[in-house]
Amino acid sequence: SDHMENIYGYLMKYTNLVTGWQYRFFVLNNDAGLLEYFVNEQSRHLKPRGTLQLAGAVISPSDEDSHTFTVNAASGEQYKLRAIDAKERQHWVSRLQICTQHHTEAIGKNNPPLKSRSFSLASQGSANSPGVQRRPSQNAVSFFNVGHHRLPTGKRVPIMQPDHLVDVREMMSQAEGQQRDLIRSIECLPVSGHLTSLDQDLLMLKATSMATMNCLNDCFHILQLQHASQQKGSLPAGTTISWLEPKISLANHFKNGAAQNFPAEINKPASVREEQSAAEPCQLTREPEEINPDEELEDICDDKEDDLGAVEEQRSVILHLLSQLKLGMDLTRVVLPTFILEKRSLLEMYADFMSHPDLFIAITNGTTPEERMIRFVEYYLTSFHEGRKGAIAKKPYNPIIGETFHCSWRMPKSDVATDAGSNFSAHSPSEQVTLSKDLEGQTDMDYYTVKFVAEQVSHHPPVSGFYAECVERKMCVNAHVWTKSKFLGMSIGVTMVGEGLLSLLEHGEEYTFSLPCAYARSILTVPWVELGGKVNINCAKTGYSASVNFHTKPFYGGKLHRVTGEVKQNATNTVVCRVQGEWNSVLEFTYSNGETKCVDLTKLSVTRKRVRPLEKQGPFESRRLWQHVTESLRDGDIDKATEHKRALEERQRNEERLRAETETPWCTKYFLKEGDGWIYHKPLWKTVSAVQTQQTDTN
């Protein structure tokens, strides 16, 4: 390639907090696939001060400025470098990426696929033994004894019956044990010396062995399904095939540097056995449950999320995960390590967007369409700080299909912003009385109640539906969101596909809106979250609309978490309000009359949601479903949290498999599919219409 020439020059290299940045002379050796550096150009003929193997490395520009970039080697070693300007950085980054790709592909071509083999580590001996004295040309695979297993020639393989699958499963278990021993043996190697646990060839062997076991498990599962379909017609209804079991669970490959324990089923905690007991679809109660707000108590759970901080301890875990990903790859089916999880489900995160119910209720109190649109934009922009828990780079639990979350908020009426005449309903007093009786009205109370329900309505693709209503103010919001996550190199992007609908029944107005994308940045250093994308809010009846831009930080300067927006009257194209600031800090609203208002989101009061105690929650309600994972995370026991999480995910896979085999469709509990969206089964607009119809018939 024309771009494969050797390049050299001065770069600044970050050493440590004491020494800081120092100029060093770097040489890119394309033939050897090495990045070397020297104290200065004059010492280039001497032994380099440092060398990085580029095969399998990740080269990425830094988010902090336009001059810095990092080189993350497959060994776990990292160089943090800084060029003199953005153009010079781009020159080095592009050449390094070309060289890295060339040598990474060469490794794949020079290593043929592994055959079926049994492994045992050669004796390591002392530091002076021949087994440890590794020659440069010696391949790491030569440290393993290889024994091939071949079928007798001339012998046909018979069609396997269920009892033969038992034998296959036993052999698979043995293979899994051998692969686990291999991983353990590699991880027990020292971190420095001639042969280390971070050796490039050994890391590739670990990844290849895991991929092989995954492939074997998939093939075994296909055989199970094939036999199930063959015998489906000959078995009585309801019969369970004894050998139809879940795929063999692989070792926890995200565990770094410690031996894995896989106790027998009887030794597992009762909570894990309970999670793994797959409920038959026909036994699930899919009838909607009416939650009594009086049973809900103010939430005392205060799970503050700590920043992940520098991920040095988990670097090999993340590098191992990244080695299996490709740019643009859909991460929906990728199991992410447990240490990055928040202590809440995605469904509860959607509920936390409603943590300012006073601003939500105040929308309908606006006296004009213009004011109501502005109030909605104000509420919309203030919801992300609490919903996202600031800019913490952690991920909520992926909801299990059928999982639900219920909560409510009680808001003193005196705390809701009002305007003259806005508290009066457009309906007559008699109509108000009937409405309050039929809708559990609380007009005699000194507070408003906002009720919330969310449900995971689909697993593939992952779609959540959520609905909130305030009966007293005759307003509700219905939304469905499909979370599409993709790998973007040094970032992970999550697109929130879907639409929300806010209904203000007192005014006969509907507001459609969408959600911005979210990005986890700098996943190899100090992860952080930012929002990005353009969001549109429209009200067809009034002709008002709003456009909100969440700005991602550019390479060259710029602020973090910046947001801008404007509210327009479509007919005249007149801007009636502008907003700018940071979605997790301070927002400034400028109105058409010249007035301005600043909102400090960090000081904005948060109303605690009300949730039923765990003992009163159903088995598929979020907090009860994930309680053992959450407790383990609170205790800092990542291994135990991973075990409970895996049990829940395995149960979901088992139930999905059974539904596919029995051709049983999944039935949602609270949401109904309408077109491309999901609608709550009893939205307030239907209830109010029914009451008004009843009033008309009575009169």
UniProtKB/TrEMBL annotation:
Q: Which UniProt keywords apply?
A: Acetylation, Endosome, Golgi apparatus, Lipid transport, Lipid-binding, Membrane, Phosphoprotein, Transport
Query: GO cellular component terms?
Result: cytosol; Golgi apparatus; late endosome membrane
Its predominant location is Golgi
The record's section on CDD domains has: PH_ORP10_ORP11
Top-level division of the source organism's lineage: Eukaryota
Q: Where is this region: Disordered?
A: 104-137, 637-658
One Gene Ontology MF term: sterol binding
Please list every transmembrane segment annotated in the UniProt record, as residue ranges.
none
Extract the SUPFAM superfamilies matched here: Oxysterol-binding protein-like, PH domain-like
Location(s) in or outside the cell: Golgi apparatus, trans-Golgi network membrane; Late endosome membrane
Where is the sequence biased in composition, kind Polar residues?
Answer: 117-137
Pfam families the UniProt entry points to: Oxysterol_BP (PF01237), PH (PF00169)
Which residue numbers delimit the PH domain? 4-101
Report which reactions are catalysed by this protein: a 1,2-diacyl-sn-glycero-3-phospho-(1D-myo-inositol 4-phosphate)(out) + a 1,2-diacyl-sn-glycero-3-phospho-L-serine(in) = a 1,2-diacyl-sn-glycero-3-phospho-(1D-myo-inositol 4-phosphate)(in) + a 1,2-diacyl-sn-glycero-3-phospho-L-serine(out)
InterPro entries in the cross-refs: OSBP_sf, Oxysterol-bd, Oxysterol-bd_CS, PH-like_dom_sf, PH_domain
Gene Ontology terms describing biological process = lipid transport
Stated role: Plays a role in regulating ADIPOQ and FABP4 levels in differentiating adipocytes and is also involved in regulation of adipocyte triglyceride storage. Weakly binds 25-hydroxycholesterol. Interacts with OSBPL9 to function as lipid transfer proteins.
Which protein family is it in? Belongs to the OSBP family.
Protein name from the UniProt record: Oxysterol-binding protein
Q: Which organism is it from?
A: Ceuthmochares aereus
